[in-house]
């Protein structure tokens, strides 16, 4: 998978969307592995290259758009499980634009039998809480890619905690750099480093 990931990154940087898509779609690897071992780390590398001024913002945006389009096609490969009769709302922190990670979580949980309400980027805390209450969701999963958005997550957790009954609240994203202790300091109930880990935690809890 390392070689496939690197070739995918190279195609993205070159702006060759067709080659990037073909590389992944032609792979016979499990779709979950493609998400976690190819697409996610590839985008981390793309983001790092942009931060180091090795690629332009246009290249970074093209890589993101290509991956989003590819995920929409790969999602058809997920084999759906028995429906659980449980609802999960998935959203980014208020002000957070990076939504591919939460889209991955949504695809994993949908395949695992959850009814998924995917809100995505730029999700105001009050609006998320209103929807969570109206839909009587069991779980709300919130994400932040940038450390600067963590205070927005803290606020969202506070607002959600005031609901009666409150949902199970999970947080994640690159903002925490895999640090569960720091993530749970937001007041959330759960933290998971990736979509597979989160799906596993929910399967155990519910």
From TrEMBL:
Keywords in alphabetical order: Cobalt, Metal-binding
The keyword Metal-binding is annotated on this UniProt entry: yes
B12-binding domain boundaries: 85-206
GO biological process: homocysteine metabolic process; tetrahydrofolate metabolic process
One Gene Ontology MF term: metal ion binding
GO CC, alphabetical: cytosol
Superkingdom: Bacteria
The name this protein goes by in its record: Cobalamin-dependent protein
Biological source species: Solirubrobacter ginsenosidimutans
């Amino acid at each position: 998978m390392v070689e496939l990931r690197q070739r995918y990154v190279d195609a993205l940087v070159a702006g060759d969307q067709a080659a990037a898509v073909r590389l992944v779609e032609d792979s016979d690897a499990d779709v979950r592995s493609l998400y976690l071992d190819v697409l996610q780390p590839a985008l981390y590398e793309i983001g790092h290259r942009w931060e180091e001024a090795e690629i332009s913002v246009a290249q970074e945006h093209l890589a993101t758009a290509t991956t989003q389009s590819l995920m929409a096609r790969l999602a058809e490969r997920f084999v759906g499980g028995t429906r659980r009769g449980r609802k999960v709302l998935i959203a980014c922190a208020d002000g957070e634009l990076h939504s591919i990670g939460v889209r991955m979580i949504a695809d994993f949980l949908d395949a695992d039998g959850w009814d998924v309400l995917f809100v995505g980027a730029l999700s105001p805390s009050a609006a998320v809480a209103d929807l969570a209450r109206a839909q009587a969701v069991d779980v709300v999963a919130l994400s932040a890619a940038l450390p600067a958005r963590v205070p927005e997550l803290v606020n969202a957790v506070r607002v959600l905690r005031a609901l009666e009954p409150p949902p199970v609240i999970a947080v994640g994203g690159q903002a925490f750099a895999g640090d569960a202790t720091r993530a749970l300091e937001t007041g959330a109930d759960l933290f998971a480093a990736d979509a597979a880990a989160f799906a596993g935690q929910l399967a155990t809890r519910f």
